Amino acid sequence: MTFRADDLIDRRRLRRKLTFWRVAAFAVAAFGIAALAAWFWNGEAGGAAADHIARVKIEGTITENDELIERLEKIRKSAQVKGVILTVDSPGGTTAGGEAIFDEVRKLAADKPVVAQVGTLAASAGYMIASAADHIVARKSSIVGSIGVLIQYPDVTGLMDKIGVKLEEVKSSPLKAEPSPFNPTTDEERAMVRKLIMDSYDWFVGIVAERRGMTRDQVLALADGSIFTGRQALAKKLIDEVGGEDQAIAWLATKGVDAKLKVVDWKDTGRNGGWLFSKALARTVARALGLPEGSAGVLDEIGADRLFLDGLVSVWHP
């Protein structure tokens, strides 16, 4: 009898273990199915098969972004997208990155009405992108402007002297690999860099004048790097209207877009590495399990990504 009693206890323990693992397997499968469904749902058009207004968020530091450009191209080709809202909240970034996105937005605007809605900030390359839209809406307290270009590089020669480090180099010509943080900048090097800056600045001023219907002199009066509130920007013709998404939708309605259409986020699905390694899928699963989604967002918040910008940049440093 003792043997039978122990056997029954073991069987009950086994049943409990099996029940636990069945429930756990079911839960994992359910999370997986939900995450996969959300991944598809949040794909190219938020899962919307019906006509809708596409919303694209352009946030953080601007760099050359192939995924964003491809997404804008898909929006342009989508028959279900009747209008586009660009939600811009950016201090700027690389000039080349801003130029690439600007060109893609103009291509999109040739086929569909596009309105830019400024959040907290649309400065430098961020404003460059906003100006590609056919209408700009900003909050009264939004920050707009900072039209200009710069190159920044450190000078560590004083530190090298203190720690006793000396740089030796052989190069083909004096301006090769200059300016360098390891050598004091010469007048010739500054002149070379200034030519780069002024050429890109001239282009930036030109596109603002063209997009905002202003003369070059009018833009130059504003393009000294100054930033403006939304109310100031409206008075200076850098934006068209004060408000938020409701005003953006109302403008789209004047272009024949049904104001009752659903606004659907077209997100960065992060599918370049395949669905198993999708950033969107990972975020969805993390949310479902109540886990943190990583520290990348924290780095973005503190502006760490701006420390590593290379080349000509159009960025406002708060």
Describe the structure.
- Helix 1 (2-41) packs across helix 10 (279-289), helix 2 runs parallel beside helix 3 (95-109) and helix 6 (187-212) packs across helix 7.
- The protein has helices at 2-41, 66-77, 95-109, 125-130, 157-163, 187-212, 216-222, 230-235, 245-254, 279-289, 296-301; strands at 52-62, 81-94, 114-123, 135-138, 143-145, 227-229, 241-242, 263-265, 313-315.
- It is an alpha/beta fold and 318 residues long.
- Strands 1, 2, 3, 4, 5, 6, 7, 8 and 9 form a 9-stranded mixed beta sheet that branches.
- Helix content is 46%, strand content 17%.
Task: Describe the SSE topology.
Elements: H1 2-41, E1 52-62, H2 66-77, E2 81-94, H3 95-109, E3 114-123, H4 125-130, E4 135-138, E5 143-145, H5 157-163, H6 187-212, H7 216-222, E6 227-229, H8 230-235, E7 241-242, H9 245-254, E8 263-265, H10 279-289, H11 296-301, E9 313-315
Parallel strand pairs: 1-2, 1-8, 2-3, 3-4, 3-5, 4-7
Antiparallel strand pairs: 2-9, 5-6
Helix pairs in contact: 1-10, 2-3, 6-7
Report the principal-axis shape.
flat
Stretches where pLDDT falls below 50 for ≥5 residues?
38-47, 271-282, 295-308
Overall pLDDT metric: 82
First and last CA, distance: 80 Å
Number of helices: 11
Q: What share of residues are in beta strands?
A: 15-25%
Let me know the number of strands: 9
| Helix and strand sequence | HEHEHEHEEHHHEHEHEHHE
Report the sheet with the most strands, covering strand number, pairing sense and barrel closure: 9 strands, mixed
| Helical residue percent band | 40-55%
Q: Given the helix and strand composition, which structural class is it?
A: alpha/beta
- What would you call the quaternary organization? single chain
Radius of gyration: 27 Å
